[in-house]
Structures are given as structure tokens and as C-alpha cells.
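Proteins fold reproducibly. Next comes a concrete instance:

***
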Amino acid sequence: MISARNHFHGIVKEILKGAVNGIVKLETPGGNRVSSTISMEAIEDLKLAEGKKACIFVKATEVMLANDNLKISARNQWKGTVKEIKDGAVNAIVKLEIEEGVTITSTISLEAVKDLGLTVGAKAVAIVKSTSVMLGEE
């Protein structure tokens, strides 16, 4: 169990190693690519290697939403369809299906939901910086 609302599975496709950090590139069963920037120590502790299965975790507060893909430095951008919106007092929880059976949850302001025109059935893009993607062993 983990408090991060977003968790799904992937296969390690590539590892770019640096002196302190590395970038681990994964692919989900539906073909979505995920990049995670984590320490070399974590890569070694998890024994990550090409072809290995891994779990992907992202806190909902780290998921931004947009109407279309953006040319920005955030590596992870997944197109999907809004499946659910739960309004709170100032924030909303928006669930975006990015592939069949895989949803990513975002906690954003009610103002952002309104500004983006998000409704159930609308198309949107979830955006996550690679430094906000945690990995775990499957």
C-alpha cells in the first residue's frame, strides 16, 4: 500500500546512467512511455535493468492537466479522456483514462477545471515531470 493515487505497471526499456542520478524509461502495456529521474543508488537497490517489470507511482498533486500536448520540459505527457470529476471546496480530483483500464488522477483547483473546460468525456493531457515519478519493484 502507498498513498500515491497513481500507480501502474511498466517494463524498463532504457536506463541512462549519470554520476548521481539516472533516467529510467518505461513503457506501459498500452504503449505509454514514462520517464523517471531517480538516484543511481535507487536504480541499483531496485536492480532495475532493461526488460524488468516495475511499478510506477505519482502523487495526484504532481499531475498537471492541459487541453493539448505542450512543448515544455516535462517528459511525461499522456493523452486521455476525463472519466470522473469530484469537486471539493477549492480543488477537484480529476480522473483521466490514458489507456484502457489505466487512469491517472490529478488534484487541481476548481478554477483550473473551469478554465480548461474539463467535463466528463472531454479530452485532456496529463503532464508529470520525470522527477515526480517514483519507481518500485513489482
User: Anything to note?
Assistant: DSSP finds two helices and ten strands in the chain. The longest helix spans residues 110-116.
